[in-house]
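With this grant's support, the team has encoded backbone shapes as discrete tokens. A representative record is reproduced below.
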Amino acid sequence: MNRNLLCVAALLVLLLSNCKKDSFQYQLYSPTINDVDSIYLSPTDKSLIADGQARLQFIVEAYRLVKLPSGKDSMEKVDYSQLPEGSLKIYEERSGKEVGMSYSINGMPYDSVKFHAEIGGRKSSTKTVALRAKPAPLQKLFVDVIFHVWELNTTHLSYDPSSYQPVTYDLLQTAIRNMNAAINNQQTVSPNGTQANIEFRLALKNQNGATLIQPGYNKVVYSDNVKTNPLATSFQPNDFITFINNNKASYIWKPKEFLNIHVLPYGSNQSMGTARASRQLAPQPGQELIPGVAGIATSEDDFTTDYVNTVCAMPRTLFFPGFERKIDVFQFVGEFYGLYVPTYRATIPDSDYCKDTRKYNGNEQKNYVNAVKIGMDNEKYVADNVMDDSRYPSLLNSITVDQVNRLRAVMTRCPGRMNAKTQ
């Protein structure tokens, strides 16, 4: 055994003695200004509110021409952050000023502004951004919210205490807080972001006027009693819908006074089965018809009180978004008040009836991978709209002027949704 070990050791010494340092000096590619052959600039939006807060935050990409072994040319991205400081310059052409990686303006000296980027002797194409006036202040509105939270009975055979997560009261408070911050322009400098001046608040009293121990919270403990088919082995969406409709007095509080949110035991891909507003009051002087709302209501009471028409439903998984993600529920609330996810739909003009939202092609898989999307105009932008699909990357912290106008119109003119108060 010792002889074998000595032989192995001797062999290793011999091999190591024959190793020589590679004479070739490896070096990572480090770009120079002269390498840049092409520059792409996106201002990330087509318009900008000229209020000094809204801000364009540019996306810049630099490329160099590379000859492939096949003889073909290829444009490869250059990390311009490795270039000497100050190599990248972005100019606003109307004023002739260098603006850096972001731009805001207070007031409207022009109807639009124009930008291009430069690195060395290379320039990007010029991009034009329309300026729009700061919106007029809006009257403050309040909406009293009641969360009907469905929780599985702990005595049910399928209940597993090791994995079941209840939707706790603090999660509801967080959801309300996040929603108000997003729609009231507290988290963003988005180019077309504005303040809805709406406060969703947890209802202090129930529909009978009694004070709630926990404002805005109605816990619904369910078991096999909700099943439409007692022999069914699992719960189905129709079980909950039917149960709610059969017990409307308990589970759909006065729709003209409350926003009824049902937190149902569904996953994120389950359809909620609710409908958007179908009727609106006839326009008054100075008002226009709300696009996408087909019917004309006879009065504020011209609506059906049931799950489909007067409930805002959302899956319980929203309250457990995962590590380093915040609770975002406004997509479902926004849909209740007439808003749409801003993706491109060929069947709907302006897709979501809002001209100032950035829209991406939902058929392009790459638009679901990260927060940088490619718009229908082939320009890149960072998704930040509060109505973006929360299953995919987005900042979810901005609402636009057109969205606010539509939201408030539905909230104040569509029966079954008219639950806003002025105090």
Residues 141-421 form a domain with the Collagenase (Catalytic Domain) fold (CATH 3.40.390.10).
